[in-house]
Amino acid sequence: MRREERQQLIVNLLVENKTVDLDDLADRFAVSKMTIHRDLDDLEQAGVLRKVRGGATIDAGMQFESDFRIRERQGTEAKLAMAQTALELVEPGMTVMVNDGSMAAVLGEMLLQKRPLTVITNNAAIMERLKGESGITLIALGGIYSAKFNAYLGVVTEEALSRLRADIAFISTPAVRGRLAYHMDDNVVRAKRAMIASSARTCLLVNHQRIGHTALHVMADLADFDAVITDVAPDAAFLEEFEQAGITLTIASTQDPT
């Protein structure tokens, strides 16, 4: 088996199980542990996974967010529910900003239901889906392309955002704790903050499984957002924290997380 094929199978296992074990991988592919170590090193360098003792994981950590190619295959029902709820905040004729991320990409496609719209985005998946669509004025933000986030980031992106104004911005986050939203990548943080600053209203989208977690950088205070949407109600302790902080949490689905 070629190295590329083996590494793709490792990624497939991670999507299914979220973690992989070094010994199990060596047995499964009939190769040495050192070979698996090298595979995991390659995938970690590409931003696909995070190595941990005895294996690897795609679960987000303080300084790690899994690759867009993995995230877009996870949590489809939750993303659809949150995107549908977020869509209720959009009216035809609006100018809408949408940030990077697989959650945002789902919302980006749904925006076609609300045309005519002007859509401003740094999300390459949304650019690809909306380009050429009638009733959509697409403003594609440039910058340095990040394969990990499938988005354009950096000074060029931030400068363009400073010269634009939207009616509403949809911002996603991989971590929320207390009244703060977090992200592990500083370039992504700056782009999201620039969108928040350039919009009359803002909406935060967060999977309930990410509530109660932190990441390396504080991105924003939840009070900065006009709406905070999640897919399933988080634990009662977190709901109480939001209530005490005066944060209204909109639940997109009442489905039990189990």
UniProtKB/TrEMBL annotation:
Record's keyword terms, sorted: DNA-binding, Repressor, Transcription, Transcription regulation
Span of domain HTH deoR-type: 3-58
Region forming the signal peptide: none
Record flagged with keyword Cytoplasm: no
SMART domains xref list: DeoRC, HTH_DEOR
Keyword Transcription on entry: yes
UniProt GO MF annotations: DNA binding; DNA-binding transcription factor activity
InterPro entries membership: Carb_Metab_HTH_regulators, DeoR-like_C, DeoR_HTH, NagB/RpiA_transferase-like, Tscrpt_reg_HTH_DeoR_CS, WH-like_DNA-bd_sf, WH_DNA-bd_sf
PANTHER family: GLYCEROL-3-PHOSPHATE REGULON REPRESSOR, HTH-TYPE TRANSCRIPTIONAL REGULATOR SRLR-RELATED
Designated name of the protein: DeoR family transcriptional regulator
UniProt source species: Rhizobium mongolense USDA 1844
